[in-house]
Here is the input.
Amino acid sequence: MDEVIIKNIIEQGETINTEFKEARTNLPKNLFETVCAFLNRFGGNIILGVNDKKEIIGIDTNYVDKIKKDFVNLCNNPSKISPTIYLKINECIIDNKTILYINVPDSSDVYRCNGRIYDRNEDGDYDITDNSNLVADMYIRKRDIHIEDKIFPYATMNNLRKDLIEKARKWALLKNENHPWKNMTHEEILKSSGLYREDIMNKQKGLTLAAILLFGTDETIMSCLSTFKTDAIYREENMDRYDDRDVIITNLIESYERLMQFIQKHTNDKFYLEGSHSISIRDKIARELCSNLLIHREFSSGITSRIIITKESIYTENPNVPRMRGFITINNCIPYSKNPKIAKIFREIGLADELGSGVRNITYYSEIYSHTKPIFEEGDIFKATVPLVTKKEEYKEIKAYDVINDKAQDETLYNKGLNKIKAQDKAQDKIIENIINYCQKEKTIFEIMNYVGFKNRTRFGRDYIKPLVKKGILKMTIPDKPTSKYQKYIANK
Here is the structure.
């Protein structure tokens, strides 16, 4: 997770969904009581290496790997946490001190730690095992949280595609060669991921809707959820109907692959260097749109999820049960997992990142791709609009000839323009490096401009200073008054 976001979490202090714990050389003894309580309530953030006074104590770097390994092992130990859960523990350096961050999702299951049931309130974690009323309330509260947890007691492993489970295992091992799924059977993978569960209240057990949507045969999926469909539409000439269409009625993993292929077929890519690596901005945006369209869908709704591509934008619609209504931005986005079991599988196999990353990543890459912010609107239908750059505009950017007809494209001129962009990107990276080196001590924007040889203050602030401040690479000396004439900047060490 981004260092700036973690700093903001620390500054806000401990809450019903935030807990700090000191952990110099070992996991805190009561860590899994908090994990259990978060799972049983609304989810939350646990930060190791910070005390309850919001002071960053840090973790001894010699013990970081051991702490991470112990945490993962205990997450998969049913004697410690039941049902078992796979949680990611992330390392972050703040003020030259190492901390570890854990995001715990909410869940529709009732979890136990060391055989005891814990819940969360503003004062911390508390054991409710012996309070039958509170335990019953918890089961009732969780029973209808996520339709993905609906049990199909007569579904068997024969209703699932073994090749898809093997594909998921392979992708998980590509991310982490020591992933817990490495030596598990197919049944063990499903159970450890919460895709096979037992409902004590109804005395049912079996595969869940999430398991069927992720790994089920097409016939099984349609039998369990007859309204399940994702529609991909391309409109260029025929705006009333479509010029191309893919009606996707299959498992979520192959649905993701087909949606990605559809976007790649009908949109232009754009060269971009991220650091020293060339990346596809188009694919970065498409990945977030496709995974969010599938992960965060309200599957109980009969409304079809859609992705519509035109010359001007990529537009998505998804049935939704909103927790807020209106437009969403990075500043007011409160992430929550609508289908946590499906989301967890997507994260494990590398098709999604941590909760809340979608809005951030789409916003970031959209501004690079089209110099325009995307629009997110939450309601009964969740809508996302990402503006596109047309081929004509793309050619203008690289200063090649304005030739739009594919048959008449002059590849030599196009490549010359592309090489010019590459050279410009290298020059930009050098300017950024010079700014950071120069700002080891506080400098005004005019001092920085003079040092790197820039004359246009507005453009310099827009293209260099603001992005570096936003990423936390530069700090303002007067952050409460960004436009102050006394404002200076210093590298964030």
About this structure: The chain is about 40% helix and 20% strand. The two ends are 18 Å apart (CA to CA). The chain has four domains: 1-142, 146-225, 230-389, 413-491. The first helix runs from residue 3 to 12.
